[in-house]
Amino acid sequence: MPDDSALNYATAHYKNDAISINYKKSQSYIVPCSSSFRDRVTAFADSQGASVADLARGVFLLVPNETVMATDDPGEPAPDDREVVKLQSGPSKGRTLRRKPRLQLRLPIGYDIARLRRALSLALKMAEGEKTLSVESADDRKKRSDDQAVRVRLEEDIEQLQRIIGDLAFEPLREGITSRSEALHVMGFAPTAVPDQKAIRGRYRRLALVFHPDSPFGDHQRMSQLNEALEKLTRA
């Protein structure tokens, strides 16, 4: 039965997916579960110096309800999974009783049993490293999503630029540069052009940014011929 005086807080309601939690009132929950799940939960709670209710309360405080509800419900125990208890009081004191394994915890009124099992299962998964908790605001998630979209677009732009550069780049001369016209070709000038030294060095710097081996579009052979072309044109 609910204990109206258990918590002396003002009444508050948390509404999410039709859930209403009354923090003024609390009740004792009996949560049927497999004996292995019960043992894992109680062992984890003991290792943390906490109660089973503390584990569930921590999950509900820190984890969005949709994440809790997306966790698989461990479910009730199998028909052959029963625990034997000895009655300690009442007319039947001393008798033994076979019953479903269970966890007992006291929490505010409003939780359903399956949700409690899910929360405790999630606590175990996080403790065992199977699940991690990320404290992230809606703005953080939106920014991360926007950043990812920008990265995808940049990667696509780089791939397209690589294809364009590959199409426009000069073909390395098999015999190397043997004439001024070939040097002009490598530099991207017309074979009969007469560029001044400033134009030649400016073209070299721009092409070196593209073909230098440390650049994303680097090409050792083209860079070598670019150096040859510069040397030939600045000597002439």
Instruction: Give the spatial strand order of the biggest sheet.
Output: 1-4
Strand tally is 4
The number of helical elements comes to 8
Residues in β-strands, percent: 5-15%
Distance between the termini: 102 Å
Q: Main beta sheet, described?
A: 2 strands, antiparallel
- Helix fraction? 40-55%
| Poorly predicted residue ranges | 1-18
* Broad structural category: mainly alpha
- Mean pLDDT metric: 84
Query: Rounded to an integer, what's the Rg over CA atoms?
Result: 36 Å
**How would you sum up the global shape?**
rod-shaped
Helix and strand element order? EHHHEEEHHHHH
Features:
11% strand, mainly alpha, 236 residues, two-stranded antiparallel ribbon, 49% helix, disordered N terminus
